[in-house]
Automatic annotation (TrEMBL):
It holds the Pfam family ADH_N. The keyword Oxidoreductase applies. One of its GO terms (molecular function) is zinc ion binding. Keywords: Oxidoreductase. This is NADPH:quinone reductase. CDD domains: MDR_like_2. The lineage of its organism: Bacteria, Bacillati, Actinomycetota, Actinomycetes, Mycobacteriales. It comes from the Bacteria. The keyword Cell cycle does not apply.
Amino acid sequence: MQAIIVKDREAGVAGLSLTDQPYPEAADSEVIVQVHAAGFTPGELDWPHTWTDRAGRDRTPSIPGHELSGVVVELGYGTTSLSIGQRVFGLADWARNGSLAEYTAVEARNLAPLPFDIDHTVAAALPISGLAAWQGLFDHGRLTAGQTVLIHGAAGGVGSLAVQLAREAGARVIATGRTPDRDRAIALGAHDFVDMGTETLEDAGAVDVVFDVIGGEVLARSAALVRAGGTLVTIAEPPATRPTDGRAVFFVVEADRSQLAQLAARVRDGRLTPVVGAVLPLADAAAAFAPEQRIHGKTILRVAEG
């Protein structure tokens, strides 16, 4: 099969190449998915598990990418929850070969059925961003109707979905970003917008939940905005500064079939719209990863047609 591999950590994006790789094997409770569309995280070439397995052993050359949408073509022993020919989408394991390949092995529990009226390119934009938004807001942030949430990076892949989910949940949504992001954030459902280029973060006022995707100074300054009993949630880095009378949570997104299904249901009925930017062929993976190629919306790699 054809796959994108990376051999050399020092080479970074320049080390990505499209090559022939062995067809994967399905272990117990796994499936082989023919990948139709795949997503990736630009910074994943810096993640330890891109280069080593869970025991710390070198696993290069490795196949990056962890979001996928496709069709089940093979069942591992004991797999009963999915069937051959079924459309699925979900999240590949962090410490194994990923989704930038024609076929990949995935634990069945990490996948959810994909309705026929959702395109694979749209579904591939959901797993990491959608699960991160859901888990950050509701599992860790405990956001409820009537509360106020401040969402950083509101026009990005995670932030844009977080804005929509928080608005649907009945929260007052304050978004942050740069000037070109204002109209996008408001269109997605934000009630207010703080322009990080012309306004100060403190203009947002006190909030019940901060959802951060940026880290650094923005994360540190956000702690002071959290009301008593509120929560600062981040996927960027463990927070060094915590709210005076609140919680601080750093988390890594986890696969969850039920949550994936709820995200897909919202896409079907128009309550949730992933922001897909460019859709490129698998061979253009290096260009998609390159920082100078960043565009509005999530870049998706199309692997198979149909």
